[in-house]
Amino acid sequence: MINGVRAIACFRFRMKSLRPDHSNRFEKRAKLLPACSALPPQPSRVNAHPLPPFAADLTHGASPTVLEPKPLSILIVEDEPGDHALVVTYLRHKTFRNDAGTPHLVWAKTLGEALAAARGTLFDMVLLDLSLPDSAGVKTVSTMTAAQPGTPVVVLTGNDDDELAMAALAAGAQDYLVKGEFDHRALGRALRYAMARGAQERRLQLFEVALNSAANGIVITDIDGHIEWANEAFVQITGFSIPEVIGKNPRQLVKSGAQDHAFYQHMWNTIVSGQTWRGELVNRRKDGGLYHELLAISPVLTADGAIKHFVAIKQDITERKHNEQRLELALVGADLGLWDLQLPGNDLHISARVCSMLGYAEGEMGTKAQDFELLVHPDDAPVRRAAMNAHISGDAREYHAEHRLRHKDGHWVWVRSRRRIVARDENSAPLRAVGTMRDISQEKHLKLEGADLLQRIESLIHGFGKSPDTPRQPASVAKCAVIGSREQQVIQLIAAGCTSAEIGQRLGISATTAATHRRNLMRKLDLHSTAELTRYAIAQKLIAG
User: Fold this and answer.
1) For 286-322, what is each residue's pLDDT tens digit?
2) Where does 462-544 show beta strands of DSSP type E?
3) Which of 43, 180, 198, 323 has CA 20 to 30 A from 123's CA?
């Protein structure tokens, strides 16, 4: 789309150079033609005939899209028989022939006859006298161009008047020739350039229609940022009309104050250096309402690298931002973090909530899946990987796993992670996956505390009625198990009736780590309840009996 806009700016600049100046105008146009013809060729119109040999250089060797060549169709609107005869002589010169022969000429002596001839017929060219029995002046041009939209009109007049010439061009004429001052070569050049400019103007109109039909706002500014052109989408987004924005700087219209000076300075430094700037910002509509905008600004460079224009493409993303905010609120309410994985490149986006679960600032955890994998507890990695592979292969509709992740300060955090693949390629290979993550450490702690309480109750029940002088001798005592200093501290605190959370607080470790120590000690000492562990601590003189 930006290339199309560049073509518009380039063409408008060159069209100014192709207007007649009544001073060796034909020779000057001959030199300027290559610049204009550098644009891609325009396909033939529906009823138009192929260009004649003298215009072959404009097609750059492109093959015509018609099956058979047809002679040019030219309407001559001239009331003077002598002038008409001279023009016919020129047009029958071999220069104007194509593969189908000499042009087909239609003569109209009045504007009324010309309009009648134009009904139902699309001519390749109209040669128009400005002094007719039923019409004169610039109005003749505007009437003829309206009757033959898109057909190049070349004015033939006996009045060598620069002001009249410019008015005729403004009314839609492609060129202006003074009778008696041109021969067949000059007429050929004028017709050639007129047809070329007509084709380019139709192309320009096509670009403008396309750009005005675009859903995104498009703005073209000069090097100082003053708006030269804007499309209808820009009007819909901002509420400003086209006349209100032409000549204005966008900051005069939509700047909201939500972004600071440094933001705009960075934007400006980027585009004046010849690079494209992309980003999101908050702007203000004409009615004062704020809207979120996704903006891309690209410089338009000349052949020597100089910046002549800037093209901005603006997308209103207000609704998308509101949806994101609603989603974020829902996730926060459910205490869920969000992550988004682009599988081909393993690019991972993690929400702020996931980062905070693990003690990191947003953007601190890295942007690759490999960075995240390093945080998974080694004991949980196989089960997690198996669940993931089942989902990727299609055996499981979604990925669901509970595992531990290493917190920034070193302890382990239990999380419940869900994932679903939302995009696959034609071979069913995954392209994108999104998922949620929730911290379930407290849930795990409660389960562990519940299990420990149950063990205590069971121990009391089993020990009811037994003599306190004959305690069960733990197998671990006989085995003389080696207990480390940290494990001894944990045993002492368990025997004192502390919960895992209290143990973690006392020893400066997480509750999850304390619970892990508790389970490991039970297995290591072959104990089944807190009461047994307490007796073990007394027997080993870890606590006073």
Assistant:
1) 999 999 999 999 999 888 889 999 999 998 988 877 7
2) none
3) 180
CB distance 488 to 481 below 8 Å: no
SS3 275: coil
**What DSSP line would sit under 36-49, residue for residue?**
HTTSPPPPPPTTPP
Dihedral through CA 487, CA 489, CA 494, CA 499, nearest 10?
-100
List the beta bridge partners of residue 363: none
Check residue 459 and give its pLDDT.
63
Tokens linked to 511: 């509750």
Name 382's Cβ contacts closer than 8 Å, sequence gap at least 6. Answer: none
Contact predicate 278/295, CB 8 Å: yes
Rg (CA), the chain: 42
Contact 146, 119 (CB under 8 A): no
- Taking 80 as the threshold, does the pLDDT of residue 482 lie above it? no
Categorize the per-residue pLDDT at 222 as very low, low, confident or very high, splitting at 50, 70 and 90. Answer: very high
The pLDDT tens digits for 53-67 are: 333 333 333 444 444
Entry pTM = 0.43
Three-state SS at 502: helix
Backbone angle region of 542, left / alpha / beta, with phi > 0 → left and psi within -120 to 50 → alpha: alpha
The CA-based diameter of the chain, rounded to the nearest angstrom, is 142
DSSP code at position 98: B
